[in-house]
Specification:
Length: 289
């Protein structure tokens, strides 16, 4: 074999070797990823995933619903790369995350959502007080219906009331959608669901659900607050919650790319179209004289 042929073969081997190394390197624009989200935030998570895949066609993102607490455990046990959260982690949970992920706890906040209290359209009830919520959650009548134990809605209400979920009394109908659809069977009870379940303005399924119920403004300190854009933006509505991403990915791969996309203007526009308040951009009003 001539020296020229040997040189060409070595060069080809080097090129193949380099290309293989490049394929194994982290990439934000190609590959597969699964996101775990509580059912309450599924709509906005799917919308952001769709937007990312449109921008990066070589990526494939699967959104899987899982109760918030269980999703967090999967992240700690390296069974998931990225999750959507709303509850404030305890000091112990933050410590466990930083130890297991070997990363600083830096939640990537991307939207303001809310837990809302709903009744059938036929109900005479028009509002609810913080006192009613607090007392009702400790009553044996169990007048508040949640979508399940370990759910983000229950976790958040418990935190607002400075209680543990296990110390509260409530009824369960699995799934936000089912709570709304079956609420008319229990006219004296109040459903507790995630706003994102019904917030998408022009979605037919969300429209059908909105037709079944009315959202109760919450009275706090003598004033009524609603989970509208103003109530969420200024966090005046007492049960406003901030959604954030948490990942155990230490390099700039799909999870990190997806988080960056969701928090920039393109992602924040999607959040707004979902009927939620973008966390990183606000509507700018300009008065011209």
């Amino acid at each position: 074999m001539s020296k020229l042929k040997v040189f060409i073969l070595l060069l080809l081997a080097f090129v193949v070797s380099c290309s293989k190394k490049e394929d194994k390197s982290p990439s934000y624009h190609k590959g597969d990823m699964t996101i775990l989200t509580d059912e309450s935030f599924k709509s906005v998570t799917e919308a952001l995933a769709d937007g990312y895949m449109i921008n990066y066609p070589e990526t494939k993102i699967k959104v899987v619903t899982k109760k918030e607490d269980l999703g967090f455990l999967d992240l700690l046990n390296d069974k998931a790369r990225i999750i959507v959260m709303s509850k404030e982690l305890s000091a112990e949970e933050v410590k466990a995350y930083e130890k297991q992920a070997d990363l600083k706890f830096l939640p990537a906040k991307f939207a303001a959502d809310a837990v809302v209290f709903v009744v059938p359209k036929s109900s005479p009830k028009t509002s609810i007080t913080m006192e009613e919520i607090s007392e009702g959650m400790q009553s044996d009548e169990k007048n508040f219906i949640f979508d399940g134990a370990n759910s983000s809605n229950l976790n958040f209400v418990a935190q607002k009331l400075k209680k543990l979920p296990k110390d509260l009394k409530y009824s369960i109908i699995p799934g936000n959608k089912n709570v709304i659809e079956e609420l008319n069977k229990y006219p004296d009870k109040i459903g507790v669901v995630g706003l994102n379940t019904i917030s998408r303005p022009y979605d037919k399924n969300a429209e059908k659900l909105r037709e079944l119920i009315k959202i109760l403004p919450v009275e706090s300190k003598g004033k009524l607050f609603s989970p509208d854009f103003e109530g969420l933006r200024e966090m005046k509505y007492p049960f406003t919650r901030v959604l954030y991403f948490l990942t155990n990915e230490g390099n700039f791969n799909i999870a990190s790319g997806f988080i960056r996309y969701s928090c920039t203007q393109l992602g924040q526009i999607i959040v707004q179209k979902e009927g939620l308040q973008p966390y990183n951009i606000y509507r700018r009003e300009v008065q011209m004289r």
